[in-house]
Amino acid sequence: MEFVSEISGWGGSFFGYVIPFLFVLTIVVFFHELGHFAVARWAGVTVETFSIGFGREIFGWIDAKGTRWKVSWIPLGGYVKFLGDDNAASMPSRRDGTSEKDLAPGNFHNKNVWQRMAVVAAGPVANFILAIVIFASLFVVLGETVAEPMVDEVRAESAAERAGFQAGDRVLEIDGTYIDSFGDMQRLVMSSAGQNLNIVVERDGAALTLSATPETQEITDRFGNVHQIGLLGIGRNADSQAVRHVRYDPLTALGMGVGETWFIISQTFSYLGSMIAGQADTTQLGGPLRIAQVSGQVATIGFSALIHLAAVLSVSIGLINLFPVPMLDGGHLLFYSYEAARGKPLGEEVQEYGFRIGLALVMMLMIFATWNDLVHLRVFEFLSTLLS
User: Fold this and answer.
1) pLDDT, tens digit, 9 for 90 and up, residues 237-258
2) Which residues constitute the domain of residue 200?
3) Which of 199, 209, 343, 363 is the most exposed place for a label (fewest CB within 10 A)?
4) How many domains are there within the chain?
5) Could you tell me the pTM of the whole model?
């Protein structure tokens, strides 16, 4: 009976993760591909296919301009295919260039390099715009609870005490970033474990710069997930009169949406830099399984939390696609930048080898992230229980 219980529990969790995951991923992928599609249409490129998912088609239709819109069986991404593409990665056709399709004005590879760059860049840009709109909408509709960045308590033997913090200090800046609320301070500190921070505080009407290094501490969230975060050891009274709930006008919210998007981008680069330097925990790097788990967990909090996750994921996908790796949008932009600078494209053989290397890098990253996911989700422990 214990075996049956484990199977049913795992199965229930599986479906509870998959549906929110597909909801979030479909939104993000659709807008990414819509960016490519919209700018391609503007540039006069013939779009042959707009697909959500890969593999065999489930259903689809053809629009008035001949584009095949379809949903496919493998829902882990999507693509738009242009006239002249050899495949969904927009590699040029290997035909001799004399066929009717090769000479057609709607052929993607017949467009000038700036038009091609605009089409490629439009996908990630659409992801950033989607994230900004979602964040801004949440600030307008739901608002946020804001606490003044005051220090009410300094815990004994903490990083804050060693740095010289005192109760009554008001935090003004952290490493040049203006701090508007206690939440702003928390986010920066939590993502800066082990990193020295220059923190400007106001004390008795004067500005004072303190140097502090947040301590690394493992915490367990409400869903049982373990995270490593940075802690200073500063406390804020929850019943303080300086805590308020604020809703914002659309223009202010739009600016805050841009700020949220930039914060995610900057923290991603900070994490990657720390990971390359060997200072970050690489097990925190997750793939589709981890995203599916988080999607299911966030969905239990509420729809607004799930939409917020979609915004975060949209920023991440947009940023990753801009990395200068062949097979990704950033790799295409790298090749086109070379063409714009030299006045001629890279040789076909060089591009082909570049795409092969890019595919290998993407596959290695996916394997590494999936391995982390399997360990994090304790799949190996589950399998060993079944076999024992």
Assistant:
1) 766 566 778 889 999 999 999 9
2) 144-246
3) 343
4) 2
5) 0.81
